[in-house]
Amino acid sequence: MSSKNDRASPRILIIGIGNSFRTDDGAGIAAARRVRDRVPSGVTVIEATGEGAALLAAWREAEKVILMDAVQSGSPPGTLLRLDLLAQKIPRSFVRCSSHAFSVAEAIELARALNRFPPRLIFYGIEGKNFEAGEGLSSEVERALGSLVEQVLEEVRERGGVAPPRAGIPRRAADLE
């Protein structure tokens, strides 16, 4: 796990999840690297593999957490999805080919069951195309990263509140259907 700063209890924590050696599974990591130098002080950006216990520990003291990860929902590659995880669940089908041993969806549902959620928890998914071994993102995911980064930065600018998604980003999994 790498971090922008070492504050013990960040007000806002952004977590890019994935594996850069499994093509589009590295989208969350790539987004974190692009966001890192553009956030104000007091915002911590880390990269994570998505291992459940590590996620729970990472967000333990944060007031607002923004997760970014590749998903597989059946939508066209590069499609962005935003979920407010206090009100919605991540469909398990999104991570069925996840390289995470204990999937992000399972970690989130465990946190929900244990009442270990931060006060605000937002998930951004980016539809992947290729999850096989290799480096680099598909062209569709690469093109969508800029929009993902801008939407996450908008969330950060809102500070205490939850920014509405930009046009074209579904708010819920049901909006993808």
CATH topology: Rossmann fold
**Residues in helix, %:** 25-40%
CATH class: Alpha Beta
Shape: globular
Structural class: alpha/beta
Order of helices and strands: EEHEHEEHEH
Named at the architecture level, the CATH assignment is: 3-Layer(aba) Sandwich
Chain-averaged pLDDT: 82
Beta-strand content estimate = 15-25%
Number of helices: 4
The number of distinct β-strands equals 6
Radius of gyration: 14 Å
Low-confidence stretches: 1-8, 160-168, 170-177
The CATH homologous superfamily is called HybD-like
* Main pleated sheet: 6 strands, mixed
Structure notes:
The chain has 177 residues and is of the alpha/beta class. The protein has a single domain, classed as Rossmann fold (3-Layer(aba) Sandwich). Helices cover 26% and strands 20% of the residues. The chain is built from four helices and six strands; from the N terminus they run E-E-H-E-H-E-E-H-E-H. The chain starts with a strand and ends in a 20-residue tail after the last helix. The N terminus and C terminus are likely disordered.
Q: What distinguishing features does this structure have?
A:
single chain, about 180 residues, alpha/beta, Rossmann fold, six-stranded mixed sheet, globular
Give a concise summary.
The protein has 177 residues and is an alpha/beta fold. It contains four helices and six strands.
How do the helices and strands line up, and which of them pair or pack?
Layout lengths: L1 E2 L8 E6 L9 H10 L6 E6 L3 H7 L5 E8 L8 E5 L19 H10 L6 E8 L11 H19 L20
Helix pairs in contact: 1-4, 2-3
